């Protein structure tokens, strides 16, 4: 209701992967959160995403992996085709997690993941059509606890002990913390789903195609749907045509991927236009992660608001899920009573969360950027040789480094019961 005020232990800004996963983590430890989402429903921009073994460990910790596991098949094999030379290089995508289990990435519908997370939250936890305009800080004179008044564009004010920004690459909360804006990588990406009503007949492998300044790929999600993408350095004349799906599809087939193999053209030709997205790829400098202020008082950020990165290792969603588990675990140490946080201890907990995440996030940002730079290089003999060596030796190591990570368990039962 406009011009009203209400109370919440935690306000989470943004109902994307990071925001919903963080809300689920807090719900698991008995803390309710209000999730503010500016859209009028769950946003599924991007159509699908890759989740590697590290992401599935996080989903295990959040208690929702069983909803998605049976639906999506691990992809353990892939190939890279040099569009100009026609050279095909086979690669293994299988990776071992910290528990010794070997698996590959699974390409998951973004909407299915968001819905699986949202279903775990109490009714009314997500407030749609709620746009943050800012928040103010004060200290409760009686308890000396930090207090925050979160203001929405309809005049609503929410008083909270903790504010967590999960509001994406252009995060209002990140700006409030003083973090530098995400910068352009010089590349754009188009993503979508292709639908084959009679079945596509493709094997469950990842096909990628590399050309000068371009990289594209496709992977079967099930018998009728294929996820596809293309990243490239885009000429200025293409940047204006980013809102019409039919135009985007035409430009991909007739221009950007003109020389790509027929299998890729067929996939794009079957694109469901409602799933297309076209956007610049941005990232945050890794040294901003190491030296920037990622938490201040009882305010912090997670997901793309903390570590925007290029998608070249497929770890954006995975790191967001890890953030949620780690953040939930640290906040769990500040539970003072059922459903209540000790606001004076939250700041220290958030600093612990940041210390656990900044090196991890900075390393994956760097690995993703390097991976994209090598794969999207030119067509001269040196860059081709560099890509061959990269796929033979470095690519698998980068994938394993990013995937072989365990964010830990969420359970805080022991210290909640002890009243710590």
How would you sum up this structure, described in words?
- The protein has 420 residues and is of the alpha+beta class.
- It folds into 2 domains: 5-75 and 105-182 and 284-374 and 404-409, FAD/NAD(P)-binding domain (3-Layer(bba) Sandwich); 183-282, D-Amino Acid Oxidase, Chain A, domain 2 (2-Layer Sandwich), CATH 3.30.9.30.
- Helix content is 35%, strand content 27%.
- It has helices at residues 17-28, 53-62, 65-68, 110-118, 172-177, 236-239, 245-256, 262-269, 286-291, 316-332, 343-375, 381-403, 413-417; strands at 5-13, 33-36, 48-51, 77-82, 88-92, 95-96, 102-103, 106-109, 126-127, 132-139, 146-152, 157-165, 183-195, 206-211, 214-220, 225-232, 277-283, 295-296, 299-301, 335-337, 340-341.
- α1 (17-28) packs parallel to α4 (110-118) and α10 runs antiparallel to α11 (343-375).
Q: Unreliable runs, pLDDT <50, ≥5 residues? A: 413-420
CATH superfamily membership of the largest domain: FAD/NAD(P)-binding domain
**In the CATH classification, which architecture of the largest domain applies?**
3-Layer(bba) Sandwich
Tally of DSSP β-strands:
21
| CATH topology annotation of the largest domain | FAD/NAD(P)-binding domain
Please tell me the total number of domains.
2
Number of helices: 13
Strand content: 25-35%
On the 0-100 scale, what is the average pLDDT? 90
Cα radius of gyration in angstroms: 22 Å
Structural class: alpha+beta
How widely separated are the two ends?
37 Å
Under the CATH scheme, which class of the largest domain? Alpha Beta
Overall geometry: globular
Helix content: 25-40%
Biggest beta-sheet profile:
8 strands, mixed
